[in-house]
Amino acid sequence: MSEHTEEKFNVAEELKKLPHRPGVYLMHDAEDTIIYVGKAVNLNNRVRSYFREKIGRGPKIDKMVSLIDRFDYIVTDSELEALVLENNLIKEYRPKYNTMLRDDKTYPYIRVSVTEAYPRVTLTRQMKKDKAKYYGPYTSALAVRETIDLLNRIYGLRTCNRSLPKEIGKGRPCLNYHIGQCCGPCIKDRVSQEQYRERLQGALAFLGGDHAPVIRELQAKMQEASDRMEFEEAIRYRDLLESVKSITEKQKIEDMDQEDKDIVALARDEQDCVVQVFFIRSGRMVGREHYYMNQTEGESSESILTGFIKQFYAGTPFIPREIMTCEESSEREVIEQWLSEKKGSRVYLRTPKIGQKEKLVELAAHNAEIVLSQDKEKIKREEGRTIGAVRELEHLLGMEGLDRMESYDISNISGYENVGSMVVYDKGKPKRSDYRKFRIRTVSGADDYASMREVLTRRFTHGLKEREEAGAGGGGHFDVFPDIILMDGGRGQVNIALEVLRSLQLEIPVCGMVKDDNHRTRGLYYNNEEIPIDKDSEAFKLLTRIQDEVHRFAIEYHRSLRTKEQVHSVLDDIPGVGPMRRRSLMKAFASIDEIREASMELLMEKGNLPRNTAEAVYGFFHR
Q1: Maximum Cα–Cα distance for the chain, whole Å?
Q2: Bridge partners, residue 487, by sequence
Q3: In whole angstroms, what is the distance from residue 496 CA to residue 501 CA?
Q4: What is the spatial distance between Cα 367 and Cα 243, in angstroms, rounded to a whole number?
Q5: Which of 73, 414, 462, 475 could link 470 by a cystine bridge, Cβ 3.0 to 4.6 Å?
Q6: What residue ranges do the domains of the chain occupy?
Q7: At what angle do helices 79-93 and 332-343 cross, to 10 degrees?
Q8: More confident position, 373 or 165
Q9: Homologous superfamily of 404-563 in CATH?
Q10: Class of domain 261-375
Q11: 154 close to 240: Cβ distance less than 8 angstroms
Q12: Is residue 451 over pLDDT 80?
C-alpha cells in the first residue's frame, strides 16, 4: 500500500464548511461516480438534510444516501443560476438517482427564410437565431411535410437551392415550374421580388392560422374552372381544397384566448410515470407527445413534474407564453424567471382550478393514463428489442457501455463500381442521420477486403481530422466514434478493421458476425474466438436487423448509382471534372486503373487536362 494515501472524506467536517448560499451539490459514490445532482436555496440546510435521521424520505433516497462517499458543491449568486447549472450538470452526467426524461427528442419546425430575396419554406429540427420565421414545434414530421408541400403548390413557392437573384436566368427551370407547381423566380423577368413576396404573405398567413382566405380562393378557382368546363384544373383545385381542410382539421382545438401554451399532466403507478404534453399554438392544437420518466419511485408528483419541466424546457428551442400543469410547483417563481429570460418575454407557469383550462389539463392527464395502461407492455417489449438486446450483447462479449454500434458492408456487381455503406445503431435503434455512403476510389475488381480497408481508413481518418478541428471551433459528422464495430464477417473482416485502427492508434472493440451456409449469423468472432449465440435471443435478432440494414443500405446506394447511369466512373466525384473532361479521360485511358496510376504530367499530356484539373484528378486517387 502506498504511503501517500488520500485523506478520507470526513462528512461531518465537510458539512460544517457548507455555506449558507444558493448553489448546486453533487453526490459521489465510492468509485467517484456522480449519483445525484441537486440545487438548493441554502446549501448548508439542504445538504445537511440528507445526513439526518431517516424520516419519511423513501427507500430510493435512503439507498442513494447509503452510497454517498463524498459530496462537493458549486456556489451561485442566485437560485436561478443554480437551476440553470443543475439542468446542465444533470444533462452532462445523467446521475442514477435523478428523475430523468427517458428519451431526448427533437421536433420538426416549419422554417421560412424571410431574409432571402426569394424565400423558401422548409422543415427543420433546430430553431436558430438567424432572423428566419419559425412555426411549431409539431409532433408529426409527415404533417409538416404535407403542409409545406401544400403551401408550395398553392402559392408556387420555390423548393430549389439556387442563389437568387444571383443565378436568375442561368440554367433551365426545374420540373416543378413545368408542371405548374413553381412560379419560376429563376427565369429572367418572370416574377419580381414584390410579386413573390405577395405569394409568400399568403403562406405566412396560413401558417399563422388564417386558413379561411385560402379556402375561399380555392373554392372560387374550382368553380371558375368548372364553369369553363376545364375539369382537370377544377379537380386539381378540389384536391388542394381537400388537403387544406385535412390539415386544418388536424390542428383544430377550441381555445378562445388564441395564445401559445403547453398543457402538462402526468399519470403514474407503482413503477412507471408518464407525462403528457399538449402543444397549442395560436389557439390550435398542433400535436401532443408523451414522455416516460425514470427513477420516480418515492418521488412526489410535484417533484416529478418540476423535474420534467426543467429538463424538457432546457432542451426545447420554443417556449410558449403559458405552461399549464396538473400540480403546483414549489419552484414556480424561479422557473418562471428562468423561462422568461430564456424566451425573452414573460412566461407563466399556472395550475388552473376551474373552467376550460382545468378541463384541458384533465384531458391531458386522462391521455397520460391511457398511455400508461395501454402502452406499458408495448414499451417494455420495445425496450427488450433495443436496450435489452444491447445488454444481452454486452453480457455475451463481457463488455458494457455499448451505446453506439457501427456496421459496414461492401456492394458491387462482379467487381463493377465498388461502394461501401456505414450504418449506426444507438441504444439498439437505427440512427439514420449518421448513416454514410462511400464510393470506393482505390480498388478495382471484387476485392472486398481492400475496399473495406479504404472505407474504414477514410471514415476514421476523417473523424480524427474533425476532432482536431473541433478543438479550434470546427467539428463535423464523423467525430463521434463507436463503442464497438460490427463487421459483416468473421476473422478476415475483423483483422482488416483491427489493422486500420492500429495504424491510426485507435482502440475500438471489433466484433465479427460469423455466417452459416445460408449467410445468416451463427455466432460472434471476438478476441480471436467464436462465441455461439442463441438464435431465439433478442441480441441475435438485433444483430440480424443490423446485418440486413447494412446490406440494404449498400445495395440501395449501388442501385441509385446504376439508375443514374454513373457507375461506369468515379470521375464524377472529382471537382473540376465535368462530362466533357470525363469523356476525354475515358477516351485517352483504357480504364480507371490507368487513370489512377498515371502521373500528373501524363494526365496533362495524354488526357489534355489543364494543370489544376490534373492536380485534382491525381490528388483524388492519391490522398
Answers
A1: 100
A2: 408, 512
A3: 9
A4: 28
A5: 475
A6: 11-97, 109-251, 261-375, 404-563, 571-622
A7: 80
A8: 165
A9: UvrC, RNAse H endonuclease domain (3.30.420.340)
A10: alpha beta
A11: yes
A12: yes
